[in-house]
Known about the structure:
The protein has helices spanning about 45-50, 140-145, 235-240; strands spanning about 10-20, 30, 35, 40-45, 55-60, 70-75, 75-80, 90, 95-100, 100-105, 105-115, 125-130, 135-140, 150-155, 165-170, 175-180, 185-195, 195-210, 215-220, 225-230, 245-250, 255-260, 265, 270-275, 280-285. By secondary structure, it is mainly beta. The chain has three domains: about 10-105, RNA Polymerase Alpha Subunit, Chain A, domain 2 (Beta Complex), CATH 2.170.120.40; about 105-195, RNA Polymerase Alpha Subunit, Chain A, domain 2 (Beta Complex); about 195-285, Beta Complex (RNA Polymerase Alpha Subunit, Chain A, domain 2), CATH 2.170.120. The strands form seven sheets. A five-stranded mixed sheet has the order 7-5-1-4-8. The chain is elongated, with a radius of gyration of 35 Å.
Amino acid sequence: EIKVEVERILTKEVEVGYSLIGIPEKGFSLADEPQFNPSKVKLISAQSVLESVKQTICAIDISGIREDLNRKIKVKAVDVNGNEIRGVKIEPDIVEVSISLARGYPEKQLPVKPRIIGKPAPGYYISEILSNPDEIKIFGNYSKISNLEFLETIPIDVNGITKTLSVKVPPALEEGLNIGEGETMLIEVTIQVKEAIIQKILKDISVVPQDLSPFVSCEIQPEVVNITVEGKNILIDKLKAEDITAFVKFTDNFKVEQKVKVQAELPEGISLIKVEPEEVTVLINK
Length: 286
């Protein structure tokens, strides 16, 4: 028995993409994006093959050129990893590429993005990162500068810091890129850190009576509560149940049964979030 799988043949129109190899001769740069004629091609293949095509690419070698370039270049279909996909018919498979050169280099104003590595000490977090200046003008080869959206600094290590760190670092520039005239060569980066504020639940805290007449006794139901608190990590981490007092105060020592709100006495720097249950029943025994 012979099984034959039949798959639809589809046609898809896509823009022609490109990759640049090398850079022009020193003193020259691309004046604009490469232009293609035609700017779109058709891909014809089985549906499963077309689905694996990420883009079409023309590899353009501009190494050492010093004048405008007009050349016919073969188009290939590639996958997400840049590998050529066979079995795709491209119409046309050769396009005319035009590249215009200009003397000098294009400029671009880019926001600064500090590159942070490492983490602050446990219990701390980065609250803000400031750069001065926060923008820098650079110039260089069109092939390098055209796709840049921001300018990273060299790595700044914040591992284990517990307070604000200020450093002056240079931008990380690829070969062929330069700082614009009048721009600073060092960027002052300030990394502000804060202690993390965390919560903690302390369970089964005994509730004790306060301001109760010495001539009476009482029974509290339930006898224990759960208390949720908040504070800086360094304080919360050391907090224990015995550091907290849960209590009830009486305004009427003669009422046999009464609902009373539970209050809590906490160490300095610790905030109360909630008590569960909020109220307990107090039975007065005369």
